[in-house]
Amino acid sequence: MNKNEKSIVLISEDSALNQRLDSLLGAEPSLVLNQCPATLAQMNGKAQEMAQSTDLIIFRPEADLERDLAALEGIRATGGQARLLALSRGDVSLAQARRLMQAGVAEVVPDTVDDTELGQVVSRLTVGRRLTLAASPEPQGAVIAVAKARGGVGATTLAANLAFALRGPNRRFGKTPPRPVVLVDLDVQFGAVAGFVDLPPNEALFRMALDGIEPDSFFVEQSVAEAPSGLPVLAAPEGFMPLDALRPAQIARLISTLRARFDFVVIDLPQAMVDWLVPVLEAADRLYLACDASVPCVQQARRLIDFYHEANMALPVEVVISQGRKPLFPSRRITEAAKVLEQPLRHWLPSDPKHATEAMDRGRPLAQVARGAALTRAICHLAKDLTTRLACDVQTSRHPDERS
Ligand SMILES: Nc1ncnc2c1ncn2[C@@H]1O[C@H](COP(=O)(O)OP(=O)(O)O)[C@@H](O)[C@H]1O
Ligand SMILES: [Mg+2]
After folding, report:
1. What lines the ligand 1 site, CB under 6 Å?
2. How far apart are CA 386 and CA 91, in angstroms?
3. Do the two domains 6-134 and 142-401 of this chain adopt the same fold?
4. CATH homologous superfamily of domain 6-134?
5. Are strands 225-226 and 232-234 parallel, antiparallel or unpaired?
6. Position in ligand 1 atom list of the atom nearest CA 190
7. CA of 198 to the centre of ligand 2 (A)
8. In what order do the strands lie in the sheet with 83-88?
9. pLDDT per residue over 7-63, tens digit each?
10. Which of 34, 107, 321, 331 has its CA 20 to 30 A from that of 197?
11. CATH domain 142-401 topology
12. What is the tens place of the pLDDT at every residue in 117-141?
């Protein structure tokens, strides 16, 4: 084979699909397409061999994923270079797609996509950097921590509504399923998230601390509850829980388990500085620090930023001025505050006690209570800004030949 050619193996029992790919890719001079009319599991060890010598394996997942997942595990274990594309039936669920991707599949595409799009996916997966399957990491959701420089400034309001906004515009009843986002209340002593989302307090974190539980995917499955708004939430316990009952290793594991499952893990942090904040800060992609523009609050924010940076120098900490409207012309106080905090004050959440209280009392996100309100729009804007900037971070941190 010419070294510029890419080899593709199609593993599928569906003759219509095989014909479609043959006519789509067969005539392409830079591609060599081989077809295996079988399922991935039926290939036994052959698929593993292929992973060593092929650029791309396209396969049709079975209705029951378990056999595919077992076969994928075998392929991963060989450390082969091939990338994997699952060409599923149109009714594949988000949960099934995530499981396939966790097992090392680069993309899961429903066969309802048109030929142009399918061609683009194939060329994206056959050119550029090749993934080593053995090293292919689990999907890593972004971890967004929300802290506060003083109690009552509006951190939980921000965390709960930011988490909801990150789910995306179509949320529960739209065509596109909402982006998987989880809201976690680690303000375990004064946790108010449960009330904000109309769920009862949750004893899971208390049990985890008391029984020394390692929070694996089973624990997460059992502990995360769906709020009436549709948002998955891990709320704090009701009773008093000593802050140091949680171990840093448990929090580290909890976060890694959650981020394997959710695209965003939004964490409401306590004001206290405890040792298990370190794993949160190490894992976090962003920390929003809710603050007001008063001198004592800004000074406390400064101290906290220094504390956070001691744990993770690279963590972007962005101050959010809560309950204050961005002035058209910044006063001297604001200019001074920005200087002390060593950052421009980009994020402002206007004061809106009426809607903030109504949303809290009804246990609903602001977007469902007061869609057009300035406070709701400001939080949506923050969520958009976050997703855009995280995407930029990914682009700039990637190796140049990995960028498309
Ligand atoms: N932007 C805002 N405008 C007006 N009131 C707000 C705003 N954000 C929060 N609040 C109110 O302030 C109180 C404390 O909010 P909360 O989010 O629980 O603060 P924190 O978590 O920082 O202690 C609540 O009554 C809430 O409704
Ligand atoms: Mg709070």
Report:
1. 148, 151-157, 192, 290, 322-323, 349, 351-353, 356-357, 360, 375
2. 31
3. yes
4. Response regulator (3.40.50.2300)
5. antiparallel
6. 23
7. 15
8. 31-36, 6-11, 56-59, 83-88, 107-110
9. 899 999 998 998 998 888 877 778 888 888 989 888 877 777 787 788 899 999 998
10. 321
11. Rossmann fold (3.40.50)
12. 788 788 778 875 333 333 345 668 9
